[in-house]
Amino acid sequence: MTLHFIFLIFLFQSHRQILRAEAKVSAIIVFGDSSVDSGNNNYIPTILKSNFRPYGRDFDGGRATGRFSNGRVPPDLISEAFGLKRYIPAYLDPAYTIKDFATGVCFASAGTGYDNITSKVLNVVPLWKEVEFYKEYQSRLTNYLGNKKAKRIVREALYLISIGTNDFLENYYLLPHRSLEFSVEDYQKFLVGLAKNFIMSIYKLGARKISLTGLPPMGCLPLERTTNLAYGGSCIDKYNIVAVNFNQKLQDLINTMNKELPGLQLVNTNPYYLLYDIITNPQLFGFEQSAAACCGTGRFEMGYLCNEHNPFTCPDANKYVFWDSFHPTEKTNSIVANYAVRTSLSVFL
């Protein structure tokens, strides 16, 4: 057993006592897709929603908030670890005001990607529009707190970015346009260029403390394992190899941008190896099932196919790595968030 693996087991054993600190960041500001969306898709005309049971059944009050999980998602847990609020509100949720958003806000939209074409597949918020919402947020924050205080919050906030899986699984490998235009290697480079442009755009708007999350082991998601019968239920290696290669390209981008942009603290929060260890050794992390998900049959259900009328949803999500065919359970999110706080994000504590 490697030292790395022993460390992961330690993190699992301590995940319920997630590291907490006095806030040294002013707010948690979130961009990305369903891995971090806290409910923005509830307020746009898309079929990709999760604001109904059994989603959220283990969230505070058993509420289905639009998070694609049985409970909280990583930004919520990271926010709490940093001594801020227990969960990050969705920017489009009219129940919240700029007072709520001052210490944390989520602009993420489930189903989106770096590539604008990806967001069009399910009619969700493209990444450029998330930036426009952020600009609007800054204006509202200035009106609420005044220019000096608003600028301090923007400068000292921690920006969490989690995006990219949909570009491959819902776009490149599913639709013909990009796969005819690019080899997979060239598409990775294309996405990295878009990632650079995005980081530059929020840097110019004042962001300095930024976490860029890489891809998970895409080939081990239940949707891919159970619907690609040729692989016999095993992880799909070619998807995982793409994820590893793309994550390395993101690391190279991070190294370059940290050298080029004064004051930037850009870190790589790479979930790949931790999630792969959890999926391939679930019992060591306290799980019983990692190939299938909790909701429905666990094979392909996500969104409206995962609903309270489905008789197969498991009674205890803590036994499962995945909640639906694409998204982790709150327990898995807790382990991942704890790992991030203790490793890449520790520089901001």
Quaternary structure of the protein: single chain
Count of DSSP H/I helices: 13
User: Would you identify the regions where 5 or more consecutive residues have pLDDT less than 50?
Assistant: none
Query: Within the largest sheet, what's the order of strands?
Result: 2-1-3-4-5
Number of domains: 1
**CATH H level: which superfamily?**
SGNH hydrolase
The first-level CATH class is given as Alpha Beta
What coarse outline follows from CA principal-axis ratios?
globular
CATH architecture, please? 3-Layer(aba) Sandwich
Estimated share of beta-strand residues: 5-15%
Under CATH, the topology can be stated as Rossmann fold
Specify the biggest β-sheet. 5 strands, parallel
Structural class designation: alpha/beta
- Measured distance between first and last alpha carbons: 30 Å
Number of β-strand runs: 5
Give a verbal description of the structure.
The two termini are 30 Å apart. The protein has a five-stranded parallel sheet with strand order 2-1-3-4-5, with helices on both faces. The longest helix has 24 residues. Helix content is 42%, strand content 7%. The chain has one domain: Rossmann fold, CATH 3.40.50.1110.
Topology (elements, then pairings):
Layout (H helix, E strand, L loop, with lengths): L2 H11 L14 E5 L41 H8 L16 H4 L2 E3 L9 H6 L5 H19 L1 H10 L1 E5 L2 H8 L3 H6 L2 H21 L4 E5 L8 H6 L9 H24 L4 E5 L2 H9 L49 H13 L7
Parallel strand pairs: 1-2, 1-3, 3-4, 4-5
Helix pairs in contact: 2-13, 5-6, 9-11
